[in-house]
Design a protein that fits this description.
The structure is a single chain. This protein is mainly beta and 432 residues long. It folds into three domains: 3-164, Orthogonal Prism (Agglutinin, subunit A), CATH 2.90.10.10; 173-278, no CATH class; 289-430, Hepatocyte Growth Factor, CATH 3.50.4. 12% of the residues lie in helices and 40% in strands. It contains six helices and 32 strands. The protein has helices spanning 19-33, 237-243, 312-316, 358-366, 410-413, 419-430, and strands spanning 3-4, 42-44, 48-50, 56-57, 63-68, 77-84, 87-94, 101-102, 106-113, 116-123, 128-137, 143-146, 152-155, 162-165, 173-174, 185-191, 194-206, 212-218, 221-227, 250-254, 260-265, 270-276, 291-293, 301-303, 307-309, 324-326, 335-343, 351-354, 373-377, 383-387, 394-395, 402-409.
């Protein structure tokens, strides 16, 4: 929102000076109050950057801050952003993303607002404010620095203690050195030429035992979800590794298309390593509860054996979101488990324990009526995962998938020794 600025703290020039004195006085002012003379990585109160090519450059030359116009955008819309010095088209942070300055009359720096310090983007011609970081403290705290990690940091008087930083106020990009906790949200651009707040956001939810869940939302509704519940190999493990700081040259971008992109960024190359959701099967609840998704099949969704479409007319019209329901009530002596290979489950399990073998894990589930499925991983210690909730985001033939055992009534699928069992499974497989 554009607001009227109150006090700029402008330079006052004394009357009665000769032209020569003014020239002598003016040259050092250019160097001390603006970034004219040499590349700088910091600003103090009373200094600012104007939209005439002035920029801040981090000490090691990795990142640059200044005014820019996105490729394809109207040239009169100007934004303050941070980009790689070696790749000026890759913008990693934008200050006034929702309120561009019109024409090249903008400035960026510290401002005195009622004797309190603010970091602002404003228009020097009409004195309107287009972005503010809010009140940052007393005027003596006016010192900021652009680091080689791409972080713009405002410090206290000691120039050691941060009071505000762009890493904690991101736009669409997660960089090495950032901390992705439950308070940090990345918001996509509106379009490739519009850095305004878009329709997609991504954040991390931390669940039990510090396990993390990545969630993309589209206009506030869950669009994609990926969980880290410790099974190996881990689906989309690069995302969680990047969030944990294991990659020094990686960045995550919440793209305006709704995909969370994993980029490898080095001094010599930039490569897109992964992008999710990669297909419809990756979308949250695309096949609904107990609906299994296979992107390689003409009909992506199918109810598991022992289940049927919850809303048949919607299912057959191509809307699978209502999922599937059981043919029979389970929990008794007539229960068994449907064995599924290379499966990925889109929700965290409710229970985890260490068991000697898969049979012990099976017994644990079978003796608990709340248990609807389990998975056993024999890697290192035997890990038994229990799901008590309805299964969603089931993907089969997934390269990072694991064996999954879903509890069903024997009467719904037959037994391994009867023809109906083979017929039901054959019908299930051939119907894709």
């Amino acid at each position: 929102m554009v607001t009227k600025r109150r006090k700029l703290g402008a330079i006052t020039i004394l009357k009665g000076w000769s032209a020569n004195c003014m020239l002598i006085f003016y040259i050092p002012l250019l160097c001390s109050f603006h970034v004219y003379c040499t590349a700088k990585d910091s600003l103090q109160y009373g200094e600012w950057i104007k939209d005439n090519g002035e920029t801040l450059v981090s000490a090691g030359g990795e990142f640059e801050l200044g005014f820019f116009t996105p490729n394809g955008s109207s040239g009169h819309k100007r934004y303050v952003g941070i980009w790689y010095t070696r790749d000026k088209q890759t913008v990693v942070w934008v200050a006034n993303r929702d309120d561009p300055v019109i024409n090249a009359t903008g400035a960026f720096g510290f401002v005195n607002e009622s004797n309190f310090l603010e970091l602002q983007v404003w228009d020097t011609s009409i004195e309107n404010t287009y972005w503010s970081a809010g009140y940052l403290g007393s005027l003596s705290m006016g010192f900021m620095n652009l680091t080689d990690f791409g972080n713009l940091v405002v410090y206290r008087e000691d120039k050691q203690t941060p009071v505000w930083e762009s890493f904690k106020n991101p736009t669409d990009t997660f960089l090495p050195g950032m901390s992705m906790d439950s308070n940090l949200i990345l918001t996509s651009w509106r379009d490739r030429d519009d850095p305004g707040s878009g329709n997609f956001t991504v954040k991390v939810d931390v669940v039990e035992d510090d396990k993390k869940t990545l969630i993309i939302k589209k206009e506030g509704v869950i669009y994609w979800k990926n969980v880290d519940y410790g099974q190996l190999p881990l689906s989309n493990g690069m995302y969680f590794s990047a969030l944990s700081g294991d990659f020094d040259y990686a960045r995550l971008v919440m793209h305006f298309s709704g995909k969370l992109e994993f980029w490898y960024q080095s001094d010599t190359e930039t490569e897109l390593m992964q992008s999710e959701p990669s297909n419809n099967c990756s979308l949250y609840n695309f096949c609904g509860k107990f609906g299994s998704c296979n992107p390689n099949n003409k009909l992506a969704c199918k109810c598991l054996p022992g289940f049927r479409p919850n809303v048949p007319h919607k299912w057959h019209s191509g809307d699978f979101s209502d999922g599937c329901i059981r043919n029979s009530v389970f929990c008794g002596d007539n229960d068994t488990f449907l064995s599924l290979k290379m499966m990925v489950v889109g929700e965290n399990p409710n229970q985890y324990s260490v068991e000697n073998n898969e049979m012990d894990c099976r017994k644990m589930c079978l003796t608990n009526c709340d248990c609807k499925s389990y998975s056993y991983e024999s890697y290192e210690q035997g890990k038994c995962w229990i799901w008590k909730q309805d299964l969603v985001i089931l993907q089969e033939e997934h390269p990072d998938g694991n064996n999954l055992f879903v509890r069903v009534a024997i009467s719904d699928i037959g037994t391994v020794l009867t023809v109906p069992f083979y017929f039901n499974l054959l019908e299930y497989l051939l119907s894709f």
